[in-house]
Design brief:
By secondary structure, the chain is an alpha/beta fold. About 55% of the residues lie in helices and about 10% in strands. It contains 14 helices and seven strands. The protein has a seven-stranded mixed beta sheet. Helix 11 runs antiparallel to helix 12 and helix 12 crosses helix 13. The chain is elongated. About 40% of the residues are buried.
């Protein structure tokens, strides 16, 4: 290990005189136990190639950034960016890519599930003219191995089927977090990329295609490995976030992913509201007013916690901020209810069509609640 990460003064002077050809961006959150192994394995895989490794850490409470900085003090081509007040895999990838001047940039996870030994093959693909080289579990001899649970496998399969609809070309592994891209292409499309969510590859492919010619994509198969330490960041919520990105791309980005997820949560809140209303009017008899108040508070609470975990996972509130955020959410949603009634009443007076008026009021309150809570609750 020491022989891999220590650099002599002569080597240091030589490396500082040239830019790396390849930068490997590794977004991290609570990966302290893995960072040393990541450096060691990449050093072996990229022997003979000018490279640098950039950890982008979302202020991990386990001290991931400290461990990465320790390695950076021993190895001149290892860096760590510690982000404060912002989270999310997509934005971390973008920040890391934009921090380097290497012409080729790879993105891979810090959990050792991605096979770093295929990095030279991916580099050969982009050197030869591919815009993006994707480490794929579903092409050639690639496999998800034992690295995916049944739920994760289902989500990955669903994403693969949907991606072709918006990508305009087949992408065997759209939820892959392991890919290499020409940095100039990424810089060109970066302003149009979403900074929300945990998957960036599909966003990159679709955005690049809509700016001009669809990018040339090369698939490099690999076998997905089991996580060595720490906890997986993948969950059914990440699949829902991917679906939100998919729908956003179907609208050409007109509707942000976060708004679509916010609306989805709102629809689920309607079901919760009606269920509680039925409970307190049929099973536990109460007056309608009491039942309606209880149902409203329950639905707002449901919406808040689900939004906190799904829509704003990259800004998730904890501790005291969680409870002050909940109180603020109650206030905002109450104001949204007033906006709903006001808009619906105005439209109904102009044209007595209850369904149209009600839908317009509901849409208005949704937009109001989304905009205000994004600014004040999940700022």
């Amino acid at each position: 290990m020491d022989s891999l990460i220590k650099t002599s003064p002569d080597q240091l002077a030589t490396r500082r005189g040239r830019s790396p050809e390849l930068a490997v961006i590794v977004p991290t959150f609570n990966e302290r136990a893995n960072v040393a192994a990541v450096v060691e394995r990449i050093a072996v895989a990229l022997e003979g190639i000018d490279w640098e490794l950039v950890f982008v850490d979302d202020n991990s409470p386990d001290g991931t950034a400290d461990a990465a900085w320790d390695l950076a003090r021993q190895h001149d081509n290892v860096r760590c960016i510690k982000r404060l007040g912002r989270r999310g895999l997509s934005s971390a990838c973008a920040e890391g890519i934009l921090s380097t001047n290497a012409p080729f940039v790879a993105v891979m996870d810090g959990d050792l599930q991605h096979d770093e030994s295929i990095l030279p093959a991916m580099l050969a693909k982009v050197r030869a003219g591919a815009d993006i080289a994707v480490g794929s579990r579903y092409s050639g001899e690639g496999s998800s191995g034992e690295g995916l649970s049944p739920i994760r496998q289902w989500g990955s399969n669903l994403a693969t089927r949907l991606s072709t609809l918006v990508a305009g070309q087949e992408l065997a592994d759209p939820m892959s977090g392991f890919f290499m891209v020409r940095r100039d292409l990424f810089v060109d499309v970066a302003p149009q990329l979403s900074d929300e969510g945990f998957k960036i590859l599909l966003d990159l492919v679709v955005t690049a295609a809509r700016k001009g010619t669809p990018p040339a994509i090369a698939q490099v198969p690999y076998v997905f490995r089991q996580r060595q330490a720490g906890e997986s960041k993948m969950s059914p919520l990440v699949v829902l976030q991917f679906l939100g990105l998919f729908l956003s791309k179907l609208t050409g980005g007109l509707l942000p992913t976060s708004f679509l997820l916010f609306a989805l949560v709102g629809f689920s809140g309607v079901a919760v509201h009606l269920s509680v209303l039925w409970l307190f009017t049929s099973v536990v008899p109460e007056t309608f007013i009491v039942a309606q108040i209880l149902a409203t508070i329950t639905a707002m609470t449901w919406n808040f916690f689900l939004n906190n975990s799904l829509t704003y996972a990259d800004r998730k509130l904890h501790g005291l901020k969680l409870w002050t955020g909940l109180l603020g959410f109650y206030v905002v949603c109450s104001m949204g209810g007033v906006a709903n009634i006001s808009i619906a009443s105005m439209i109904y007076e102009a044209r007595p069509a209850p369904l149209i008026a009600g839908l317009a009021g509901a849409l208005m309150s949704s937009v109001f609640n989304y905009a205000v809570t994004r600014i004040f609750t999940w700022k």
